[in-house]
Amino acid sequence: MNRALLTGDEAVARGAWEAGCRFAAAYPGTPSTEILESLATYPDVYCEWSVNEKVALEAAIGASLAGARSLAVMKHVGLNVAADPLFSAAYIGVRGGLVIVTADDPGMHSSQNEQDNRFYGLMAKIPVLCPADSQEAKDFIKAAYIISEQFDIPVLLRLTTRIAHSASVVGLEDRTETAPPNYEKQLQKTVLLPAFARLRHRELVLRLDRLQAFTEKTPLNRIEWGNPELGIVCDGVAYQYAREVFPDASFLKLGMVYPFPAELVRQFAGRVRQLAVIEEVDPFIELQVRALGLTVTGKDTLPRTGELTPAIIRAAFGQQSSEHKAEIDLPNRPPALCPGCPHLGLFYALQRQNIIIGGDIGCYTLGALSPHNALDTCIDMGASITFAHGVDKVLANQDPRSRIAVIGDSTFFHSGITGLLNVVYNQSNVITIIADNRTTGMTGHQDHPGTGRTLMGKETVAIDLEQFCRACGINEVVRVDPYLIKETRNTIRRLLNIKKPAVIISQRSCALISARPGAPKKVDAETCSGCRSCLALGCPALSFEKEKAFIISTACIGCGMCAEICPKGAIL
Ligand code: SF4
Ligand code: SF4
Question: Which of 523, 545, 561, 571 to mutate for ligand 2's pocket (most ligand atoms within 8 Å of CB)?
Answer without folding.
Answer: 561
